[in-house]
Amino acid sequence: DGTVLVHFVINTDGSIQDVEVVRGVHPVLNQEAIRVIRNSPKWIPGKHQGRQVRTRMTMPIKFKLD
Question: Which residues of the chain have pLDDT under 50?
Fold first, then answer.
């Protein structure tokens, strides 16, 4: 089992960029966490004073290995 911590940016159009592993577990799991985030559907962008803005996110991706 392990948790990979990933940083990324959500653009104003909901697309994802600048995906990077902050805390990894194993190179294979780290790459899979990056792949999952990059291939996710569009996100809802952040808002500031009613306007959509680029938002930096940090998300844990948990893996359970049997």
Answer: none
